[in-house]
Amino acid sequence: GAMGGSASLIPRDLLGEYQELTFLSKQEILLAYKRFSELLPKEEKDNACSARVPKSQILTLPELRANPFQHRICHVFSTSETGDDSMSFEDFLDMLSVFSDSATSDIKSHYAFRIFDFDDDGTLDRKDLEQLVNCLTGQGEESRLSSAEMEQLIQNVRPAGQGTAPPGPRHGAHSSPSPQILEESDIDKDGTINLAEFQHVVSRSPDFASSFKIVL
Amino acid sequence: DGSEDNGEGSAVETEETAKGTDKGRKRATPRTRRAHARGRDRHGDEEDEDDEDGTRRAGHRRHRNRRRGRAAGNEASDSDMEPAKARKNEANQKSKEDDEEDEDEKGSKSGKGKNEKKGDKKSDKKGKKEKANKKKKDKKKSGSGSDSESEEEPITEEELAKLKEEVEEKKKLIATLRNKPWKMKKKLSVLKEAQLFVEKFEGALGKGKGKKFYAYKVMMTKKWMKFQRDFENFKTACIPWEMKIKEIESHFGSSVASYFIFLRWMYGINMILFGLTFGLVMVPEALMGKPYGSLPRKTVPRAEEATAMNFATLWDFSGFAQYSVLFYGYYNNQRTIGWLKFRMPLSYFLVGVGSIGYSFMIVTRTMAKNANDDGGGDDTSFNFSWKMFTSWDYLIGNPETADNKFASITTSFKEAIVEEQESRKEENIHLTRFLRVLANFLALCTLAGSGYLIFFVVRRSQQFALEGLENYGWWERNEVNTVMSLLGMFCPTLFDVISSLENYHPRIALRWQLGRIFALFLGNLYTFIIALVDEINLKARYLLPFTMFDMLLGNIEELQIVKYNMTIWEASLYNGTIPANSTAPPIQVDPADVPRGPCWETMVGQEFVRLTVSDMMTTYITILIGDFLRAVFVRFFNYCWCWDLEYGFPSYSEFDISGNVLGLIFNQGMIWMGSFYAPCLPAINVFRLHTSMYLQCWAVMCCNVPQERVFKASRSNNFYMAMLLFILFLSTLPAVYTIVSIPPSFDCGPFSGKTRMFEVISETLEHDFPSWFGKVFGYASNPGLILPFILLMVLSIYYLNATSKSYKEANLELKKKLQ
Asked: Does B403 contact A at CB distance below 8 Å?
């Protein structure tokens, strides 16, 4: 009875509401339910809708196993009050909805920002960017960037302070010699990237929406 | 099911509201208190999580006020929403102490206080609040008046309009709720809130005569929404291989998955082509046409009868296969067949032209859609930020792929930094340029070499053909095919090696690779076609009394000779048996014995079918040997080998995107080219695509490793499409040419007896339409009208092009202004 069993465990109207509230189809929600209840210990399987799965269990999902942002993703989507980043089924659905194919790039970029905001202070500052680069370059020693390279990459230039930033069209494509990320994205030049700036940059990327997705 | 009783429900509710107010009056204190508490903790719950959405607050308050008036009614309306209730109870628990504190406070006061706290909210909210208060007072008054109906009376037209607006707002909120970056719990409660509000007030809105109609309308919209949602679910369930592709996507990244998505798209197109040819050509002919053996063209000739059922013959698509609905030659030129008076030749012609037209349409439409989807991104302005924020492919679920991705991101970072630092160093660029030029030179050499090889082999095969193939072995007979397959197998690898010289970004490298292999395949295909024409001419010259070459020149003298010979043969038949007597019944001759002219259309069709089948076989065998056996070898011999096979020389194979995509495209080109002469080709292709979907999915999951340089293939899809369009154009050229300017064979196929195939149109016009229609058509097809029409089209294209350019410029200008 695996087929009918999993379907009947979510109440009908709740299923409808989940469809209303997420970007997932019915099949995807049911699949999510199945996968979620597989993560639970046997005795809790019956009330999977209200149970919480600890972070360590969530991270065993093959979809998240290789993701360098796995901890951040759990943290951002968890509603746990104790701060253990455990996930309820609804949190899980929230996550899948944001990462689903049909989610808008607006909501995707919103959550991407929160995932990249390692210290949860609402802006991406130098520390966040450093951690982000470290996540992207993996754990291996040989793939790490040297500190000089890192500096070059995310150099925290405050044009107002240094006065070296070229005036006029800053994003003059080929003419701009400075590669720094902050130089590109920090539009108001306060040294950090806020949500609006982040969404501005990311929404112009051709492949953000297609890569920021996780499919069960 | 829930929506069905909504219309009723709202009516019932108002009644219950009335009762509720009465009851509420009687035992006022406990009830109101409870209702008040409930209303407030909802409010508090909302306040915990949400500060930014002021829009629904006023409505909520009004709603709450109303609720207080009919506590009893609420019980009933809530009972069908168990989860909502449970949630509310939870919330109740949470804010219990809070309630205890203000329990004695009157509802209006607390509401006011809360509202004052939110002084920074929109100004119109205050107005609403006041109105709400006023309304509440009204309600109290009406309650004391103890008239149930009068409760709703005080709502003026203006208020009604406001309410309507609010309901619309709520509805919009419900529709856009999924776009809000909130937690599910909050979204759920907001949804419940909004749904309740809409439900309650929608009933109230349509007061009076319009009520029933309004309720009906609401019900229908709900049903329609439900139906739409179900339909969406159904549609997603209908997309074939979705899970397979997603699985591959998560293991190998989007670039490999893009091939499978392309394959699925192609499968869809071929299904439609297959449906057209099968439903409108093959089935009618098989059901209603003259049966096998009734005509010479529908009979295996006497000489071939002995071997007609041999497997080898059938495998070669000759024998019985050749004289069946699978090929052009089998069809009769009877204008109508069967009791339906099905216009077979017309249908054949229209299906042939229509499938080409459909393919053009669908490819260009998809291209336009893709261009819309990924248009707009200016490539360079946020180069580094994009590398940082969007380079991770969240679909990657395989640790090995992830490692590769880490490595590739690191290199791309390093490359970008180095490039930036050394952008002014000229030597480096010179070296790269030199290497790129060298690589292109080498690629050109390879192309020329392969072209020459095919030319050489074809020449040899002609010689063999001249001397008679019977004297030669297997190799000589299949030399051309084998050489072509081998070239198709090894040249791409060579190009791969060459492209490593160039040091492009893999996405660009993939395009170069695709372009080169495209040129290679195209050269091979066209050499092959030339060879085919030559071979047919050769065969014709030696085995048949006329040549295709002569036909091309419009020289039909030799055709006359064949026809003359046939008349003589017929005459001799008559002469030999019965003395000349025109009234005598025609002599029964077995159609197998009747001499017949050549049928070049069937020959061409056969060649294409053979080519398709052998191509399919080659692909499958390559997968089995190159991927599967290699993987098995590497896996199991690794235990007893002197070096590490898995990471050393043979290792596992990567999935070859470019080769597979091109294989698919060229295969499709052959289908388009040949399906006019062999209606069975789309069917074969559907079979091929179907099997290769499963086989390749299996192969990629079980024996391939992810690419070393993983990259995203978001935009190369349109590149595939562009190549497909090009191939479509190239492959329809010969087909259209034959339709328009070569006379069809005179004794086989649906167009026999006509000088050109398209005459079937004028024939239909003449017979099946009123005469004025034919006249109009005649005028319309006059060059004097067509030329201006073409001119007009060219002009409009020019105009549209110019406007699109100016729009683009305006876009750029605006972008500049934004920055």
From this structure: yes
Please give the distance of CA B808 from its chain centroid, rounded to a whole number.
28
B711: number of Cβ within 10 Å = 22
The phi, psi pair for A186, rounded to 5°, reads: -80, 90
Q: Does residue B588 belong to the interface with chain A, where contact is any CB pair within 8 Å?
A: no
Ranges of residues in chain B whose predicted pLDDT is under 70: 1-155, 202-211, 250, 372-381, 383, 411-412, 415-416, 418-428, 465, 468-471, 505-507, 528, 531-564, 566, 569-588, 708-716, 819
Give pLDDT, residue B637: 86
Task: Give the count of Cβ contacts less than 8 A between chain A and B.
Answer: 200
Amino acid at B737: Y
Q: How far is CA B702 from CA A118, B256, B629, B696, B699, in A?
A: 38, 14, 11, 10, 5
d(CA A51, CA B620): 49
Q: Residue B151 has which token pair?
A: 């409760």
Do residues B388 and A126 touch, judged by C-beta distance below 8 A?
Answer: no
Distance CA B312, CA B328 (A): 21
Q: Which of A18-32, A132-146, A202-216, B168-182 comes out lowest in average pLDDT?
A: A132-146
* Upper half-sphere CA count for residue B590 (Cβ side, 13 Å): 8
Q: What pLDDT is attached to residue A123?
A: 84
Percent of chain B with pLDDT over 90: 13
* Domains of chain A and CATH, by start: 13-99 (1.10.238.10), 104-137+146-154+177-215 (1.10.238.10)
> Looking at the domain assignment, is residue B210 inside a domain?
yes
Residue after which a domain boundary falls, among B191, B206, B238: B238
Residue-level pLDDT at B573: 62
Cα B223 to the center of its chain, rounded Å: 29
Q: Cβ atoms within 10 A of the Cβ of A165, count?
A: 16
Residue B420 contacts A where some CB pair is shorter than 8 Å: yes
Domain end: B238, B269, B290, which one?
Answer: B238
The CB density around residue B405, as the number of other CB atoms within 10 Å, is 25
Question: How many independent structural domains does chain B possess?
Answer: 2
Please measure the distance between the N-terminal and C-terminal CA atoms of chain A and give it in whole angstroms. Answer: 21
**Joined tokens for residue B510:** 């993939």
| Number of residues assigned to chain A | 216
Query: Considering the domain boundaries, does residue B474 fall inside one?
Result: no
The pLDDT value given to residue B807:
92
Are B26 and B143 spatial neighbours (Cβ–Cβ below 8 Å)?
no
pLDDT, position B189: 84
Q: What is the ipTM of this complex?
A: 0.79
pLDDT tens, residue by residue, A74-109: 888 888 888 788 888 888 888 888 888 888 888 888
Q: Of A76, A89, A97, A204, which to mutate for an interface test with B (greatest number of B Cβ within 10 Å)?
A: A204
pTM above 0.90, yes or no: no
Q: Is residue B810 part of a domain?
A: yes
In a domain, B224, yes or no: yes
Q: If DSSP codes are grouped into helix, strand and coil, which group holds residue B710? A: coil
DSSP 8-state code for residue B79: T
Range of the domain at B788: 782-818
Q: How far apart are CA A104 and CA A99, in angstroms?
A: 10
The CA angle B661-B664-B668, to the nearest 5 degrees, is 140
Tokens 């520390």: give the residue. Answer: A127
DSSP B115-172: HHHTTTS-HHHHHHHHHHHHHHHHHHHHHHHT-SGGGSTT--HHHHHHHHHHHHHHHH
Could you give the CA distance from residue B193 to residue B282 in angstroms, rounded to a whole number? 60
Closest to B83 (Cβ–Cβ): which among A11, A28, A204?
A: A11
B237 vs A contacts (CB less than 8 Å): 27
Q: Say if B533 is an interface residue toward chain A (CB within 8 Å).
A: no
Please report the pLDDT score of residue B3 as a whole number.
40
CA of A43 to nearest chain B CA: how many angstroms apart? 22
* Residue B422 confidence (pLDDT): 55
